[in-house]
Amino acid sequence: MKALEIAASTVGVRLTEYPVLNSDDLTRVFDALMKERPDGLYVGPDHFLFTQRERLVEFASKNRFPAMYGLREYVLGGGLIAIGPNRVDMFRRAASYVDRILKGARPPDLPVEQPTRFELILNMKTATGLGLSIPRAILLGADEVIE
What we know:
Shape: globular
Mean pLDDT: 93
Distance between the termini: 31 Å
């Protein structure tokens, strides 16, 4: 959240956090979003929210909220845009750790790594449905564009 706050302040965007731990929380957040009508939504890579991704994408689409997600599956399911770590790359890196451990390395001696490859996925059908014009630079920079 701290990284998001720093990024938002850099571009003059105000963030409001809506913690969600269960389905009741999500219903309350949907109600609050309908009253407050923010300019956009960001749904981070959270396990519970991932299980609710169809509900989240449907809510954003039905209520015409441009939404960005932290995982590609949301966009594959009709969400607008996702940006996040390339998980295939992360799994490969994890496999290299397993290999090193199986060859005798002690886990506490291995460095902690952060993701180094990120991906941007865009759903043009959703963008068109929201009446959004996506800048060419973003289209060219996207790792995947779903038509």
